[in-house]
Structures are given as C-alpha cells and as structure tokens.
Amino acid sequence: QVQLVESGGGLVQPGGSLRLSCAASTIFSIYAMGWYRQAPGKQRELVASITIGGSRNFGAAVKGRFTISRDNAKNTVYLQMNSLKPEDTAVYYCNTELDVAGGLRDYWGQGTQVTVSS
C-alpha cells in the first residue's frame, strides 16, 4: 500500500553537493514528505520536511545549506544538500505522513547513505 523509493546518496567531498530524491507510491493522500537522518551512535533527527501546501521545516543543523522541494503530481520530494560537512554523514531516511482513515501515519524508506569525506 505504501512504497518509498529513495535515490541520490553517495560519497562527496566537504563543500560539495548532493541531491536526494524520494518517490512515494500509495493509495492514501499524502500530507507531508521529508527527510530524517541518523548518524552512528546518535538519534534520528529531522533534516527537512514539506507539506502538501508547501510549508517547510528544517533541522537547525542544515538551515541555510539544504533546500527541500516537492512535485505533488509525481509524489516526489527532493532534498538539495549544499556546502556539505563531514558531520552531515549519516543514513538519510525518507519519511511521509499519510492520511489514513482520517488520521496521520508515518511511513519510512529504507535509507540511503550519505558520506562526506575527503
């Protein structure tokens, strides 16, 4: 009923850029999509999210460096990551909030590795 397909992770040098994409296949209405990340030994944290209406929310660590956009017709969200730092290294997980029977439910992708290293 819900499938999230992530792409775009990889290895990049400090100061470089990467773009992550996540496409959702679902029979339910999508309220919001976004990205979270988890580094080894740390809790999962918000990177950025965007609602169907276009409201955006960013984690403090990425404000001013990352942008998020969404193609509602394709149920796809894009995370543009610029000025990457070694501390951005983590597994990045796509997240979507779906309207299921009148309530919001979270679904997660499998994750894609982003490594920032020289």
Please give the share of residues in helix: under 10%
The 3D shape can be described as elongated
Average per-residue pLDDT, rounded, comes to 95
Number of strands: 11
Count every helix, treating DSSP H or I runs of 4 or more residues as helices. 0
Could you describe the largest sheet, including whether it forms a barrel?
A: 7 strands, mixed
Terminus-to-terminus distance:
40 Å
Low-confidence stretches: none
Q: What are the main properties of this structure?
A:
118 residues; single chain; mainly beta; 4-stranded antiparallel sheet
Give an overview in words.
- This protein has 118 residues and is mostly beta strands.
- 0% of the residues lie in helices and 61% in strands.
- It has no helices and eleven strands.
- Strands 2, 4, 5, 6, 9, 10 and 11 form a seven-stranded mixed sheet that branches. Strands 1-3-8-7 form a four-stranded antiparallel sheet, with no helix packed on it.
- β9 (90-100) and β10 (103-108) form a beta hairpin.
Q: What's the short story on this structure?
A:
The chain is an all-beta fold.
Question: Secondary-structure blueprint of this entry?
Answer:
Blueprint: E1 2-7, E2 10-12, E3 18-26, E4 29-38, E5 45-51, E6 56-58, E7 66-71, E8 76-81, E9 90-100, E10 103-108, E11 112-116
Parallel strand pairs: 2-11
Antiparallel strand pairs: 1-3, 3-8, 4-5, 4-9, 5-6, 7-8, 9-10, 9-11
